[in-house]
């Protein structure tokens, strides 16, 4: 075969699924390549459990569809699934998880220890506090399921070629996919999908693409049946996160796996090509804690012999999420990789969504959280990426609280102000490798945050009063924060303005010195990014975005380029500039003491940028705010950052200036109605629904999503992002994702949430049916209890201070 419309690389469950769904969509000249035999990678070692319970709306729907597909193929055994809580803390996590599942449309049930034992009589109720029961869960045989999908793909016209290892990828002069080379020959194609598991980074590198995943060892064992305790074949599959284990019955015994607390990463800079279906030497010492965990839930398993202990590496990403979608800069190249935790559960749904994306240009689901290009240059350090992957693996079962921070691989990136933050008593969290102050403990030694919430559990944080003081500084006096980590992308050239106008909802063509708040939009009107765009010169713009989104937004902008565009250069400048944010009623008083430049309202209005001098430093001052108060972002050469910080702190003391961290920003922004991308804004939301219609300039000419937004405005939106005041004035442990109820049914889920220290209320955002307006009454499900909430105005605190 020398020609195909699409080539899928990797003969595991995901590759077979992609090939099947492409063929089903009419791309019958699709070829599936496998370097060995089908299921020769991680697929052949999988335990085969398929469950639906997941807090991600996209992954939940992937899993739900996967089960439907496997049932259609006749390879799925529906036995139900139990997820145990073996501690009170885990029970709370399950209560929270049930609320989140209901919020995204999965009806699950939290059952008692007694009901759990009735559903699975072989367990002990000792230290059992309850379980989540999902009747539709089950398991399959990995080999049978993969071959069934491959056979179904063949039946639709696709070809499956084994013993075809990929040796190279050819690109056109414009950098698009041209052909794929194998040991058996060359195949021309315009689309290549890499579903090569732990080999995916090496295959992608053949096309000049950089993706991040690390092989991390995973072990599971087949345990012999214990006489008198034989397990029935139709026993529910189980997960026990406190004991770090999962399993299913097999031949009267059990297939038992789990997630080790100190996992091993291997082959971090490249996997041997000759590795295939053969397992690695197991390590029973590492597996012993999992066997002990199994015995705590199934006491008779202490007597169970091991038939076989299997060790195999799985592809783990730094955030544990898969890599699904196109690859920027290489048109026609797609990924379905990094699937260690979601192979059979996600495989069916991922195959369908990727096929939709390839054949129609869009997917029904929001794939943005799984974009393959979300990692950046900092992750090119193989050891650093491996540490993140190991930690993500460690916490897949081990309880990680919402306020916990990553601990491994730190410190990786520090700003020029790092030592100054240490001097102020910073407690550092981490974002995209950056050490950032979460909050400050004045007078105490600085430290790095880690699994801090383990010490206070599901209660009010002990640093709550520190956040209140930081909040009060911004609202009543002046606060200062190191914002260096925020992502910065410079866009230059004659094609810069046309590109930005095409992708932004707001008007970008304004005089140099203007700052524009806008959303970057997909062609269906969905929100791809939430940014500010500063026009520095006629053909020079700066896009500022969140620290964790800079590589995402840079890659997305690259994919918006057209062959006929004028010259445009996109360059990340995050590391080239330090940024200090200063806001509050006295911000101008402080700035006037350190500069001779006119920063009055008349000379320096809102949403403008100016060059000013602070001592010997040249600063680009930008009059914007994310906290809803008067103030500036100051962009500086890193070598001058400490000098400027020191002057601001010194002159600010007369006004009660206080350094603040990132934790308080949610409280400040939510009181003023400001949104956060990834939580409040996604590809499935449009600006009108998000309350950001003021950022859409329909009269500026054509742009991404304009037709869809015109249609939405004319037909009327069906839902709207609302601000909720939840409960009374006491702090409530709300973390996001909780189901929102009205009239006895679920009508939405919590997006952002925070305690508003000025409003003296727990605040939450939620998309609600349009008929639920200001003053409407709803309930938020918090740890199994329905808490009354009232719909308020978007901003519960006036924005007047922004422009005075």
Query: What is the CA-atom radius of gyration, in angstroms?
Result: 27 Å
Strand-pairing-aware structural class: alpha+beta
Number of helices: 17
Mean pLDDT: 96
CA-CA gap between termini: 70 Å
Low-confidence stretches: none
| Number of strand elements | 40
Across the major sheet, the strand order is: 6-7-5-15-16-17-14-18
What shape does the CA trace take? globular
Can you summarize the main beta sheet?
8 strands, mixed
Share of residues in helices: 10-25%
Portion in strands = 25-35%
Strands, helices and their partners?
Blueprint: E1 6-9, H1 13-24, E2 30-33, E3 49-50, H2 57-73, E4 76-78, E5 81-85, H3 88-103, E6 109-111, H4 113-119, E7 130-134, E8 138-140, H5 142-155, E9 159-161, E10 166-171, E11 177-182, E12 185-188, E13 191-194, H6 200-205, E14 214-223, E15 237-240, E16 245-250, E17 253-258, H7 284-297, E18 306-316, E19 323-326, E20 333-337, H8 343-360, H9 382-394, H10 418-423, E21 426-431, E22 434-440, E23 447-448, H11 464-476, E24 479-482, E25 487-492, H12 496-503, E26 515-521, E27 527-537, E28 540-545, H13 550-559, E29 569-572, E30 578-583, H14 587-594, E31 609-614, E32 617-622, E33 631-636, H15 638-652, E34 658-659, H16 663-671, H17 706-715, E35 719-726, E36 739-742, E37 745-756, E38 761-769, E39 777-782, E40 785-792
Parallel strand pairs: 1-2, 1-13, 2-9, 5-15, 13-20, 21-23, 24-34
Antiparallel strand pairs: 3-8, 4-8, 5-7, 6-7, 10-11, 11-12, 14-17, 14-18, 15-16, 16-17, 19-20, 21-22, 24-30, 25-28, 25-29, 26-27, 27-28, 30-33, 31-32, 32-33, 35-38, 35-40, 36-37, 36-39, 37-38, 39-40
């Amino acid at each position: 075969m020398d020609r195909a419309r699409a080539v899928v690389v990797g003969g595991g469950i995901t590759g077979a699924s992609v090939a099947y769904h492409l063929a089903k969509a009419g791309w019958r000249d699709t070829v599936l390549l496998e370097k060995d035999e089908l299921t020769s990678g991680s697929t052949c070692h999988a335990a085969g459990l398929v469950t639906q319970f997941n807090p991600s709306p996209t992954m939940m729907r992937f899993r739900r569809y996967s089960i439907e597909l496997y049932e259609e193929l006749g390879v799925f055994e529906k036995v139900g699934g139990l997820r145990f809580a073996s501690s009170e803390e885990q029970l709370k996590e399950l209560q929270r998880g049930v609320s989140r599942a209901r919020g995204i449309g999965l009806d699950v049930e939290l059952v008692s220890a007694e009901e759990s034992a009735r559903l699975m009589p072989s367990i002990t109720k000792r230290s059992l506090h309850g379980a989540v029961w999902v009747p539709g869960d089950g398991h399959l045989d990995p080999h049978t399921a993969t071959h069934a999908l491959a056979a179904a793909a063949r039946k639709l016209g696709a070809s499956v070629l084994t013993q075809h290892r990929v040796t190279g990828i050819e690109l056109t002069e414009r950098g698009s996919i041209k052909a794929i080379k194998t040991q058996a020959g060359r195949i021309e194609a315009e689309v290549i999908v890499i579903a090569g598991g732990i080999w995916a980074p090496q295959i992608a590198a053949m096309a000049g693409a950089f993706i991040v995943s690390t092989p991390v060892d995973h072990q599971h064992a087949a345990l012999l049946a214990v006489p008198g305790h034989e397990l029935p074949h139709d026993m529910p599959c189980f997960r026990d996160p406190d004991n770090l284990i999962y399993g299913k019955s097999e031949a009267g015994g059990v297939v038992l796996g789990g997630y080790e607390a100190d996992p091993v990463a291997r082959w971090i800079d490249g996997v041997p090509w000759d590795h295939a279906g053969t397992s690695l030497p197991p390590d029973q010492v590492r597996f012993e804690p999992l066997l002990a965990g199994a015995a705590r839930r199934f006491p008779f398993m202490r007597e169970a012999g091991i038939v076989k202990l299997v060790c195999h590496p799985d592809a783990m990403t730094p955030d544990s999420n898969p890599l699904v979608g196109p690859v920027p800069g290489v048109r026609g190249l797609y990924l379905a990789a990094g699937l260690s935790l979601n192979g059979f559960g996600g495989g069916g749904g991922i195959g369908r969504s990727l096929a939709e994306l390839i054949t129609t240009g869009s997917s029904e689901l929001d794939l943005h959280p799984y974009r393959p290009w979300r990692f950046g240059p900092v992750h090119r350090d193989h050891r650093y990426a491996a540490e993140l992957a190991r930690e993500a693996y460690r916490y897949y079962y081990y309880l990680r609280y919402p306020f916990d921070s990553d601990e491994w691989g730190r410190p990786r990136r520090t700003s020029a102000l790092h030592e100054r933050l240490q001097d102020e008593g910073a407690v550092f969290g981490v974002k995209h490798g950056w050490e950032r102050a979460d909050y400050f403990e004045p007078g105490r030694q600085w430290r790095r945050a880690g699994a801090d919430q383990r010490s206070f559990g599901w209660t009010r944080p002990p640093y709550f009063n520190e956040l209140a003081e930081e909040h009060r500084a911004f609202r009543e006096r002046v606060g200062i924060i190191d914002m260096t980590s925020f992502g910065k992308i410079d866009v230059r050239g004659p094609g810069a303005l046309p590109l930005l106008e095409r992708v932004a909802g707001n008007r970008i063509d304004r005089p140099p010195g203007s700052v524009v708040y806008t959303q970057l939009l997909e062609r269906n009107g969905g929100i791809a990014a939430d940014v500010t765009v500063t026009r520095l010169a006629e053909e020079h713009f700066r896009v500022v975005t969140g620290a964790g989104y800079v590589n995402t937004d840079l890659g997305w902008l690259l994919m918006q380029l057209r062959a006929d565009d004028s010259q445009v250069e996109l360059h990340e400048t995050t590391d080239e500039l330090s940024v200090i944010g200063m806001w509050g009623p006295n911000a101008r008083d402080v700035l006037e003491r350190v500069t001779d430049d006119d920063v009055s309202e008349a000379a320096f209005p809102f949403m403008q940028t100016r060059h000013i001098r602070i001592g010997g430093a040249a600063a680009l001052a930008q009059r914007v705010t994310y906290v809803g108060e008067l103030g500036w972002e100051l962009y500086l050469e890193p070598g001058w950052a400490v000098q400027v910080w020191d002057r601001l702190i010194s002159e600010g003391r007369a006004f009660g200036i206080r350094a603040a961290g990132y934790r308080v920003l949610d409280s400040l922004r939510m009181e003023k109605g400001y949104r956060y991308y990834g939580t409040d804004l996604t590809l499935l939301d449009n600006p009108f629904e998000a309350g950001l219609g003021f950022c859409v300039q329909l009269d500026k000419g054509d742009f991404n999503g304009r037709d869809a937004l015109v249609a939405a405005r004319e037909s009327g939106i069906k839902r709207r992002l609302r601000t909720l005041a939840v409960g009374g004035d006491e702090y409530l442990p709300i973390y996001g994702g909780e189901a929102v109820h009205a009239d006895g049914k679920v009508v939405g889920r919590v997006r952002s949430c925070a305690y508003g220290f000025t409003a003296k209320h727990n605040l939450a955002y939620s998309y609600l049916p349009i008929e639920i307006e200001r003053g409407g009454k709803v309930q938020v499900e918090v740890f199994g209890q329905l808490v009354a909430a009232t719909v308020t105005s978007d901003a519960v605190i006036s924005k007047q201070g922004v422009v005075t």
